[in-house]
């Protein structure tokens, strides 16, 4: 999977970049056909916001566009929350896809 990392207003460290590539790369095991991932880190400048770091992840490939945008106290925490949200979405997408395939086979057999 090709992973593109960008940022707006913050510096992405080498450690954050490596962690991002590792965690996003593991998402391909949930649903085959995901070719590209775009990860964007940014920071809210409002001091009243408790969790200013934002992580946006977009997965694309074979007709799928799955997106997650979450806030966190640190970029690492925001990344973890985004990955957890994407895992739920990918599991749900795969389950729907499998259920439709099995359901259509049952109709054809009847």
What does this structure look like?
By secondary structure, the chain is α+β, with helices and mostly antiparallel strands. It has one domain (2-109): Ribosome hibernation promotion factor-like (Double Stranded RNA Binding Domain, 2-Layer Sandwich), CATH 3.30.160.100. Helices cover 43% and strands 30% of the residues. The chain has helices spanning 14-25, 75-109; strands spanning 2-8, 36-43, 53-61, 64-72. The longest helix is centred in the last third of the chain and has 35 residues, at 75-109. The radius of gyration is 17 Å and the shape is elongated. The termini are far apart. The model has no long low-confidence stretch (mean pLDDT 90).
Q: End-to-end distance, in Å?
A: 40 Å
Largest sheet: 4 strands, mixed
Outline type: elongated
Class based on secondary structure composition and strand pairing: alpha+beta
Low-confidence stretches: none
Number of domains: 1
Strand % is: 25-35%
CATH superfamily: Ribosome hibernation promotion factor-like
CATH topology group: Double Stranded RNA Binding Domain
> Count of DSSP helices?
2
Which sequence of strands runs across the widest sheet?
1-2-3-4
């Amino acid at each position: 999977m090709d992973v593109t990392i960008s940022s707006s207003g913050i510096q992405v460290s080498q450690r954050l970049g490596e962690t991002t590539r590792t965690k996003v790369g593991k998402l391909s095991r949930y649903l085959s056909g995901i070719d590209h991932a775009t990860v964007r880190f940014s920071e809210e400048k409002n001091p009243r916001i408790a969790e200013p770091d934002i992580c946006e992840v977009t997965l694309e490939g074979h007709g799928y566009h799955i997106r997650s945008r979450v806030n966190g106290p640190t970029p690492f925490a925001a990344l973890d929350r985004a990955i957890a949200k994407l895992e739920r979405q990918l599991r749900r997408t795969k389950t729907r896809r499998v259920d439709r395939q099995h359901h259509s086979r049952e109709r054809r057999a009847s």
